[in-house]
Each structure stands twice: as structure tokens, then as C-alpha cells.
Amino acid sequence: MCIALISTAHPSYPLILLSNRDEFLHRPTAPAHWWSHPNTHILGGRDLQRAEQGTWLAITKQGRLAVLTNFREEGDTYVAQNKSRGGIPNAYLTQPPERRESSEEFARRLIEEVGVGHVGGFSLVFGEVRAGGEGGLEGLSIVSNRSVKAEDLVTIATKSGETHGLSNSYFGDRSWPKVVKGEAMLNAAIDDDQQRESGDQSAFIESLFEILSVDELPKRKQGEDWDVYVRQMRNSIMIPPVGGVSAESKPADTMASGKTGTDTPDHGNVEVHEFGYGTQKQTIILVDREGKVKFVERTLYDEDGNKMEVKDGQKEFEFEIEGWQT
């Protein structure tokens, strides 16, 4: 039940990205870092469980950005994942830094060479973050293997004033309350930051993490069917560790699994165990008008499912996008 929120509505930041990664808390995952050779131009976390060591969110020194969300597969529509979805962002990010590839060219390569079959449902937001006309960006694209045609692209973030959310459904699905509320809260945080006129980036970033930490998931009712309860996750931006015995054998994008364990009002004082599923990582990316990137990631739980202090789980990076004005 991941979520990505993207906005071009802040006058100081032509691009703002917020992301929650929801996963099994015990899944081996590397925190955000600059990758090793030959991909030293890529910054992001990596999934260590699959051979592809794919990512859900990363950005390159040249401003190439990719963020992936899974589809919630209802009933028997789950597709056997012979390939990791994390390899989809990798296919875009690991191109040689000097290579320029249009969104249409990448979508064609994704379908014809990388392949989108035998992989679970996904939506990928991707594009080169560069200065565009009238203070805007060149724009980002969205491709999905659950659209009518995988090569059908949606383009966003081409002008100022846009705010968009994407969770575990198709882009534009307004039936997910967490998406609608996330968009509204992000716009409100941007307005509040402008009214402060202090330019306090740290305070603004903290307000964005507050959005990603909104927990409105009710406790599971006694006797409530698990699949019915999982649908409640559409309402909550953050997913606390949740689950139960009936869910242990199901895939992560079909359900959530584990005992609850968080200090939020509805989910306190319950131990997390090895099958816990919930918001594992939170990421904020700010890109200013000079092309300077601020990347902040918070890991909420360690590999044993224990809650981490912010000071222990936070990693910050800053760099300037190469070719920002190109």
C-alpha cells in the first residue's frame, strides 16, 4: 500500500516528492546510498531479497528519477512474480549517465526488451528532472502494466501548481482516500511554508514527514475477514505493522501480514513479529530552482521489526543535478 505524492506548487521547489514504502518489515533492504560501480551515479535504497536488487525510489546525479508503486491485486488476479518489479526502475536508472532517452523511447524499451510480463502490477513515475520553460520542469511520465496499453503514457509535473498522488491503483483513481487526503495535506503544507516566509527547509521537511506519518487505519474488528480489513489501508497514508495468522502466506501487494506494533493511538503496545507488514521507509526529495537536491530517508523499523529512533534511521544527501539547465 505504498504512496507517492508529487508537487510543483512551491515557488522555491519546482519538484517535491514524498514517498512511503510499505513492505514486510523483515525484508532485507539497504538504506539509501550511492550505488557501487558501474552505477555510482544512482542514489536510493535497494531490495536485497531478490537477485535484481531493485529499487522503489531513486534519483541520479543527472536528475533521472524513478518511483514505483505496486498494484493491489484483488482476489485471484495475483500474477506469479518470476521477475522483480524492482528491476523496472533499475532499467531506467542504470543507463549510462550520458545517454538521453525520451519517455516514449524508454516505454518502448521497457516493453520490447525488459518486458512487463511475469511481474506483478505496477505504476512507474519516471523522467529527467531538469529546468523547463517558465520556471517549470520538463515533466515526468507514468507507465503501468495494468493500463489498457502499457505504452500509454501520462505526463505530469510540466507546469507549476500541480499536485498529484499515486498509490496501489491506476493514476487518477480518486476512490483511494489516502491519495486525496495526501494531495490536500501536501498543498496545505506548501501554503503554510510560504506564509512562514522563514525559508526554514528543515521545518518544511518535518511537516512533510508528518504527512507521511498520518495513521488512520482502524483496529481490525474481531472476526473481520482479512481481505475486508486490508481494504481499510486505502484510508491511511502510513500503515502501521499489521497482520495475522491468516495472512502469513499471501504476497505483499495482496495483503499485509504481522502483528501490530506502533505508538500511534490505534495501534499501541502490541509486539511486532517476523511477518509484520507496514510502512518501512519514508522519503522526501526537494529540488530547488538551482537544481540542488535534498534527499532525506527515514527507516522506521530495523530488520528485526524493532522501531528505530529518527536519529538512527535518518539519512540525508545533497547534490546538484548535472546539466540542470540543459
UniProtKB/TrEMBL annotation:
GO terms for biological process: Golgi organization; protein secretion. Residues 241-269 are annotated as: Disordered. InterPro entries: TANGO2. It holds the Pfam family TANGO2. GO terms for cellular component: Golgi apparatus. This is DUF833-domain-containing protein. It comes from Extremus antarcticus. The lineage of its organism: Eukaryota, Fungi, Dikarya, Ascomycota, Pezizomycotina.
